[in-house]
Structure formats: C-alpha cells, structure tokens
Amino acid sequence: MAIIVKKPAPLTFWERIYLPAILKGLGMTMRHMIKTLAGGGVTIRYPEQHKRVPNNYRALHVMPTWEDGHIKCVACEMCSTVCPANAITVHAEEDENPEIEKRAAFYEIDELRCIFCGFCEEVCPRDAIHLTKNYEFVTDNREGFLYGMDRLTKTGRLVSELEAKENKDR
Ligand code: SF4
Ligand code: SF4
Q1: What is the tens place of the pLDDT at every residue in 69-119?
Q2: Cα–Cα distances in Å, from 147 out to 4, 63, 88, 99, 112?
Q3: Whole domain around residue 35: which residue ranges?
Q4: Mutational pocket test of ligand 1: of 81, 113, 116, 135, the residue with most ligand atoms within 8 Å of the beta carbon
Q5: C-alpha gyration radius of the chain
C-alpha cells in the first residue's frame, strides 16, 4: 500500500520573518521575569542563607545514642548487607551486657560511595542509623568522607539540635 506524504503548506510572510515568534518568546520571558521578581526571586545567598530541603531529603548519616551515650547499633550487619553501594563496614564484638548479644567494634560509612538510597535506615531493626537533611559535609580529602562511630554519633547530636531549631523556626 502506498503511503501518501502531504507537502506542508508554504510559510506565510510573518512566519518567514520569525518576528512574531521572537516577540512571543520575549513576552513569555518578561512575564516569568516579572513574576519571579515579584515573588522575591529564586536565588539564595548561600552560605549565609540555606536552602530549605524537602522533609524526605536524604543526606549525611547519624547514629543516635541511648540516654547513657551508648550507640543503639547491635552490629547485626543488615545495613551493610543491604547497602547497594557497599559503603558500610561493620565489625562486631561481644557486649559486656549479657542481655545484648553483640555490639559494633567498628562501624564506618564511606559517604563518597553512598548513593543516599536510605535502605540502611529502613532495614535497621534498632533504629540505629538515620539519614539527615544535612548536605554540608564537603571536604578536600577522601578521608574526610569516612564517618566512623565517633563522627556519626557526634554529628548526630549536632544535627539533631540543628533540626530541632529548624523545626521550631518553621
Ligand atoms: S543510604 Fe544507601 S547507599 Fe548510602 S549507606 Fe545507606 S544503604 Fe548504603
Ligand atoms: S546500624 Fe542497624 S542494621 Fe546496621 S549493624 Fe547496626 S543495628 Fe544492624
């Protein structure tokens, strides 16, 4: 069966000089510019101002602790098993508390490998690892992205305070 392709209609005079299309485009640009300026603009003065990220934003990890300062992690290794980026290293040891089978002797997250999927937080049976909204942890060396237990618990306290303040300011 033959396919008939229709020849497009020839361009009109105004279409050939492109002027109406250019003016229409400029009009739209002006409309958006005025709308943006009236709304206060979209650019923020970082780092003096910080971007308000959505509630489900996932960034730097923290390890919450119990009131006595002990971390909640029991070194079950579920987070390191589920991690698709192989970013978590956990080594277990016996806990002196007979009610707890084991605890983490070594726990480290390589934030450069992490893809912030949140699987580790979801799978943890002890609610021992959280992802926060803190995206400001850049550094100029690779070691700076390795977060061991000390940094994870310390950062956790700082971030919790910051997030509590942010929620209060809302
Ligand atoms: S957020 Fe995802 S990629 Fe990052 S450490 Fe957790 S499981 Fe691994
Ligand atoms: S952080 Fe949670 S999932 Fe990971 S080893 Fe500790 S208890 Fe298990």
Answers
A1: 888 999 999 999 999 999 999 999 998 888 888 889 999 999 999 999 999
A2: 66, 10, 10, 28, 10
A3: 14-43
A4: 116
A5: 27
Q: Residue 160 pLDDT more than 60?
A: no
| Conformational region of residue 75, where left means phi above 0, alpha means psi within -120 to 50, and beta covers everything else | left
User: How many angstroms is it from 161 CA to the middle of ligand 2?
Assistant: 23
Scanning 39-148, the segments in alpha helix (DSSP H) are 78-82, 119-123
The number of domains in the chain is: 2
CA distance 136 to 125: 28
Question: Best mutation site among 117, 129, 147 for ligand 1, i.e. most ligand atoms within 8 A of its Cβ?
Answer: 117
Q: Is residue 50 part of a domain?
A: no
Give the span between the Cα atoms of 35 and 56, in whole angstroms.
28
pLDDT at 166 over 90: no
